[in-house]
Amino acid sequence: MKWHTQDIQLFLKERDYIDTVILPLYPVSFADDIQQTVAMTEFINLLSGQLEKQFKGRILMLPGMSYLKTISEEKRLADLIEWEKELISQDFKHIFYITSDSDWKTVEEQLDGGLIWMPSIPLDNMDDQYKLSILEDQVKQLLNVFVKKWQNND
Amino acid sequence: MSKNRVTRRQFLNYTLTGVGGFMAAGMLLPMVRFAVDPVLQKKGESDFIATNQKVADLTTEPTRVDYSFEQQDGWYSSEETGTAWVYKDENDKVVALSPVCKHLGCTVNWNGDKANENHFYCPCHGGLYTKDGTNVPGTPPIAALDVFPTKEVDGFLHLGKAEPR
């Protein structure tokens, strides 16, 4: 389910079936790494779109959390933990974060939800057909991650 | 200016008939055009979307065919992609199934589950469909997979809009 009014209507109706929530994490910076953060944000945005298509009926894809790179890591982590608390209180059984920003890798242990870190692939200058097949491959790999997690808890 | 003089009465008659005729035509022609419009309308040729799949390359094993099309969403037009599972049945007829699960809309995969070979499998809630797209009773889906109308143009597969059965 996307964060769209129509999808949310369905979500409210079929709530029991949707036990997984995904929060994309988008870094924003205006310093030297501006290009990198843009590429990361773009890639995760495309990937989460494809991922939502694959798992529409069981996941809720949230609008991403954007954060400034200038803000300290502790503060960012505290913000994310706020999100996590809210999501847990909403009875989601599985929580995932998806990002290209490797900063999150170092604080992975302090999170209850699973962190999916995908290195960003430079997709600009790429022909659409090729772009799509790359994203499909990534989604296929993630498919196993999700299915395993679901099977372990069922 | 001699014998065939046009009288004032005649002159007025001619001009009035002429102008009146134009006005009547101005009103009637659009009406006639509206009435015959459905006949002149072009048949929805563009409803079919071309794919890169050669029909000759299709086998009895369902293959994944991706296609892309322009989608108009209000003022925003975007390149959308779609997928179909395509195979040839025993009578060599091309069958194209929509991959969208009839339960809650996940994407189903052919042979996606090792325990259920030769079935379409939905990874979200374990929905199963047989090869012809019929839902297996006892699994969440309540209807069969949608079917695309298909067409062969210059050897390539063209897909229409998926229809429920």
> What is the beta-strand fraction of chain A?
15-25%
Q: What is the multimeric organization of the chains shown?
A: heterodimer
Mean pLDDT of chain B: 87
Strand content of chain B: 25-35%
Pfam families (chain B): Rieske (PF00355)
Organism (chain B): Cytobacillus kochii
Transmembrane segments (chain B): 12-32
Family (chain B): Belongs to the Rieske iron-sulfur protein family.
Question: What does this protein look like?
Answer:
The complex is a heterodimer of chains A (154) and B (165). Chain A has 154 residues and is an alpha/beta fold. Chain A has helices at residues 5-13, 34-54, 73-89, 128-153, and strands at 20-28, 59-61, 65-68, 94-99, 114-117. Chain A has one domain: Rossmann fold. Chain B has 2 domains: 1-41; 45-159, Rieske [2Fe-2S] iron-sulphur domain (Rieske Iron-sulfur Protein, 3-layer Sandwich). The model of chain B has no long low-confidence stretch (mean pLDDT 87). Chain B is 20% helix and 30% strand. Chain B has 1 helix and 10 strands. The interface between A and B is medium-sized, with 18 and 16 residues.
